């Protein structure tokens, strides 16, 4: 019942405009109410996880908070405060007092326990559908190191999210981005990496040279980015674990930028400017062999591969203004897919394959939007002085992007929004930040 | 390289002024072949390092400061354009004359864009602007081997307000005089 209902709840995220709101109303305790376009979040209870070893109390409480914040942070769930609880489980294995949870209208109940042995951390949890009085899926246990405690909370929340929505989660994931500091006319930039919620921020490069637009590899182990370290824009490849890096493109006189990994992580698709003309190329990271994919006197840049690896969406001003085009991965005749008013740039193909997100510039405003891969059903999700560079959550349900405030004191921050345009919020980055690349779910 | 050939063919076929010549920067391109510290009397050392004695004041017409301040090191562009205005051409005529006189200097033409555009497109747009200025300088006789381009997109604004007056200053190509071999 829980599963079915939230599956319905997620449906409008795909085509909110196509489904009349009344169709979502249903009888029974799991009624979903939509009023003025706002979905009523599903109420859940998550009593503080049990500490099963001495001294695990604080970690148990902290891990519970991470899981709760992940779920409420989606905008799809609402946490019932502990002060409302009629009873709490005596232990992880205690029978669930369903009437006590029904009485406070909790529709989902999450229980958990935490044990610490030296540096080893074990977290287990169970999820219950309160109104049917049954466990939803089997209990799960995660084991890891103490330092990775936040990931344990994210793992619990991913499992809960996945069981209730039928979608994969996105909480145990990381984001690589450009951390910015200093005045607008002399800004220092360095690569940063953090958890999806802005925690565990670390720098990957120093700020001695300009860096632009990092991209995670499909497995999240490496990052491609544009670096001016040589004095000119070049593609650099960085290993996340060792922070070792090397230059990928070395042709003198060329400017190379806008790099993306291919699906196998073995090649880079990127732009080269030579003689004022910018086209898209592909280079094998192992052999260095390269192929030209576009040949036009216009600007072709910002490529993004389809998840099946077969097609590339990119931006081009061959029509006179920036528009989006799709071509086969090996090159070939591109098909224009954007036809609305204004200029379209920085397209990114959803990991689900169904949508392309983009930046749209029109009438002095910038928007993050999504469209189907044939360009139909365009929907704008945001509007501001300057929104750009969207990046998909690993489940294709949420976008993170750059929002820049105007004026001499203005600067970029990271925001996220779901694909229905709901739940817009800032991602904490401890300072100016731009160009997020959202990595895969961690293993 | 095949792509350079294609680029050259496209240039010829389209007669677009923004296309480049096939000249490439590289080893033995002749850049800085005259050596250092000649002509300008600017106190450059033999090693190629810039000496502490300086390059002469802005009053010295052979100094990079004079180039920057009196001739004008930058040209401005219209929104999303890389076409040179008559004013821009006049400035570049002066730059070309200076570069032809002071033959031991090289130049990097930096292309820039205003903040009203997406990041990667603006890098490409800056490249287009830098190349337009470079091509014009070449057309006025400056050897291609002495001119290199770079684009900073919208990442290096000189004016920081968010209105048209600042945007106009940021849509620019700046010719930066450099002594020594380009690498």
Helix and strand topology:
The complex is a heterodimer of chains A (443) and B (183).
Chain A: H1 2-15, E1 34-35, E2 38-39, E3 42-45, E4 50-51, H2 57-73, E5 77-79, H3 98-103, E6 108-117, E7 120-129, E8 134-135, E9 140-145, H4 149-165, E10 173-181, E11 188-195, E12 202-203, E13 211-216, E14 222-227, E15 234-239, E16 245-247, E17 255-261, E18 267-274, E19 277-284, E20 290-292, E21 300-305, E22 311-316, E23 323-328, E24 335-336, E25 343-349, E26 355-362, E27 365-372, E28 379-380, E29 387-392, E30 398-404, E31 412-418, E32 425-427, E33 432-441
Parallel strand pairs in A: 3-5, 3-6, 4-6
Antiparallel strand pairs in A: 1-2, 6-7, 7-8, 7-9, 10-11, 10-33, 11-12, 13-14, 14-15, 15-16, 17-18, 18-19, 19-20, 21-22, 22-23, 23-24, 25-26, 26-27, 27-28, 29-30, 30-31, 31-32
Chain B: H1 2-14, H2 64-72, E1 74-76, H3 86-101, E2 105-112, H4 119-139, E3 147-153, H5 164-170, E4 172-179
Parallel strand pairs in B: 2-3
Antiparallel strand pairs in B: 1-4, 2-4
Helix pairs in contact in B: 3-4
């Amino acid at each position: 019942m829980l599963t079915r209902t939230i599956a319905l709840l997620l449906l409008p995220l795909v085509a909110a405009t196509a489904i009349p709101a009344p169709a979502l109303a249903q009888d029974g305790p799991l009624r979903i109410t939509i009023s003025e376009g706002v979905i009523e979040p599903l109420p859940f209870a998550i009593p503080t996880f049990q500490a099963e070893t001495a001294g695990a109390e604080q970690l148990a409480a902290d891990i519970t908070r991470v899981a709760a914040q992940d779920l409420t942070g989606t905008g799809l769930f609402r946490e019932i405060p502990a002060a409302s609880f009629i009873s709490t489980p005596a232990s992880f294995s205690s029978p669930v007092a369903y009437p006590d949870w029904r009485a406070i209208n909790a529709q989902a109940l999450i229980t958990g326990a935490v044990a610490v042995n030296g540096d080893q951390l074990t977290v287990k949890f169970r999820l219950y559908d309160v109104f049917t009085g049954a466990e939803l899926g089997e209990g799960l246990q995660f084991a890891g190191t103490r330092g990775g405690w936040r990931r344990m909370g994210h793992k619990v929340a991913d499992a809960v999210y996945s069981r209730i929505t039928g979608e994969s989660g996105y909480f145990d994931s990381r984001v690589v981005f450009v951390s910015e500091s200093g005045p607008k006319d002399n800004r220092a930039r360095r690569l940063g990496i953090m958890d999806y919620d802005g925690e565990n921020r670390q720098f990957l490069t120093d700020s001695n040279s300009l860096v632009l637009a990092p991209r995670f590899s499909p497995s999240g182990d490496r990052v491609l980015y544009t670096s001016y370290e040589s004095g000119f824009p070049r593609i650099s490849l960085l290993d996340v674990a060792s922070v070792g890096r090397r230059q990928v493109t070395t042709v003198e006189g060329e400017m190379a930028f806008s790099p993306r990994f291919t699906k196998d992580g073995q090649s880079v698709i990127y732009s080269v400017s030579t003689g004022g003309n910018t086209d898209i190329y592909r280079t094998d990271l192992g052999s260095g062999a390269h192929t030209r994919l576009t040949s036009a006197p216009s600007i072709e840049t910002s490529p993004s591969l389809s998840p099946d690896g077969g097609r590339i969406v990119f931006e081009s001003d061959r029509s006179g203004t920036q528009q989006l085009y799709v071509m086969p991965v090996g090159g070939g005749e591109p098909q224009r897919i954007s036809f609305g008013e204004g200029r379209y740039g920085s397209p990114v193909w959803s990991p689900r394959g169904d949508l392309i997100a983009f930046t749209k510039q029109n009438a002095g405003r910038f928007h993050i939007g999504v469209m189907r891969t044939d360009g139909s059903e365009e929907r704008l999700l945001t509007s501001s002085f300057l929104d750009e560079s969207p990046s998909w959550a690993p489940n294709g349900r949420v976008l993170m992007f750059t929002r820049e405030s105007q004026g001499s004191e203005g600067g970029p921050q990271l925001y996220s929004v779901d694909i229905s345009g709901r739940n817009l919020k800032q991602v904490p980055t401890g300072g100016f930040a731009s160009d997020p690349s959202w990595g895969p779910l961690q293993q | 390289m095949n792509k350079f050939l294609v680029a050259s063919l496209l240039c010829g076929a389209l007669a677009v002024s923004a296309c480049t010549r096939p000249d490439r920067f590289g080893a033995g391109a002749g850049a800085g072949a005259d050596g250092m510290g000649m002509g300008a009397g600017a106190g450059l050392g033999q090693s190629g390092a810039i000496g502490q004695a300086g390059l002469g004041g802005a009053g010295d017409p052979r100094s990079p400061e004079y180039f920057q301040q009196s001739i004008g090191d930058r040209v401005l562009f219209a929104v999303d354009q890389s076409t040179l205005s008559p004013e821009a051409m006049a400035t570049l005529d002066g730059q070309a004359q200076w570069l032809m006189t002071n033959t031991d200097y090289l130049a990097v033409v930096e292309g820039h864009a205003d903040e009203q555009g997406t990041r990667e497109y603006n890098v490409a747009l800056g490249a287009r602007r830098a190349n337009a200025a470079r091509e014009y300088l070449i057309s006025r006789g400056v050897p291609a081997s002495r001119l290199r381009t770079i684009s900073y997109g919208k990442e290096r604004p000189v004016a920081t307000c968010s209105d048209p007056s600042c945007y106009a200053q940021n849509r620019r190509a700046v010719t930066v005089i450099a002594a020594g071999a380009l690498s």
